[in-house]
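Supplementary Note 2. Why include the ligand at all?

Several targets in our set were suspected to adopt different conformations when bound, so apo predictions alone were not considered sufficient. For every target with a known small-molecule partner we therefore ran a joint prediction. The input for uridine-5'-diphosphate is given below.
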Amino acid sequence: MVSPQLFSQPKTYLITGGAGFIGSHISETLIEQGYRVLAIDNLSTGSLENIRHLLNHPNFHFAYASITDEVVLDRLMSEADVAIHLAAAVGVQLIVEKPVHTIETNVMGMESVLQAAIRYRVKTVIASTSEVYGKGNKVPFVEDDDVVLGPTCRSRWAYAASKMVDEFLALAYYREKGLPVVIARLFNTVGPRQTGQYGMVIPRFVQQALKGDNLSVYGDGRQSRCFVHVVDAVRALLKLAECSEAIGEVFNVGSTEEISILELAQKVIDLTARTAKENESCIDFVPYGKAYAPGFEDMQRRVPDNTKIQQYIDWQPSKSLEEILQDVIDSFTKSKSNQFKI
Ligand code: UDP
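The joint prediction is reproduced in token form.
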């Protein structure tokens, strides 16, 4: 690819949550492609380690600030051509433990990003989540399906509800004020740099297996998920940002390769046994009430229908679950995530 720098000032992307798991991968990809990146992160769940290799790059600028800091956000937005909004409270564990933080971060954060974006009419891609499909049992999930959420006394649903408000708000800015927005509902996205600290199952299982600990399967393990590699999710977000027909639309971004959590645990044990030569890990079944909170409701299946995103940007995931797991195992065993060269 010809570097955009050869012709003019490179196109500038503002990445909120730029030091997070997905944000750091997007930033890295954009820098590799010759773009300028303004990353903002309050390092609440993101980490400087994720972007340390980018910090000295002339096209990368990092602001250690909250997205609700209007002055900083305004300055960054004034220089941006495109914004990708990833900063959010994520991870089921965090949501159950800190519902006030979740709701405030997601709703106020979205509001301040949209208010800044409209001032400069910056195209904004919003990372939403498959959680917004709630307890729907009509799989695969299609973007305009009806939604069934649990009651407000179960704080788990606060995450889905807060992200739905974000989607409503963004679409309202598009319809009422003409702000170009695109919404991407990310399904279980995994890869190097994701931490298991906030409940994400794959890094948790891999770390448990590499330590020889038992793998904590919540419930009976029959619930299933589809996991997409972060590089595929990044490719989708960047293509959506470039697609003018995508403005004002909502897209699923996920894999359709479905696996039960019990089978996933077994696969992780098998794959890490190859790496670690021996693995004595077994499976522990942990009741949901103990893992999260009494009365916790899980989603049984979560499968995206990718027809729409295929039609608009011809996207589909390139990495299989086995490749994803191997990549995560490698990242923990070889600290590969810090070895990317720019
Ligand atoms: N899970 C599990 N053990 C763990 C962490 C998660 O069995 O140590 C289960 C969790 O209950 C859910 C699935 O794995 O059914 C995916 O969880 P994750 O938090 O990664 O994402 P979610 O799909 O809940 O957003």
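Residues 185 and 252 are 5 Å apart (CA to CA). The domain at 11-340 is CATH 3.40.50.720 (Rossmann fold). Comparable summaries for the other entries are listed in the accompanying table.
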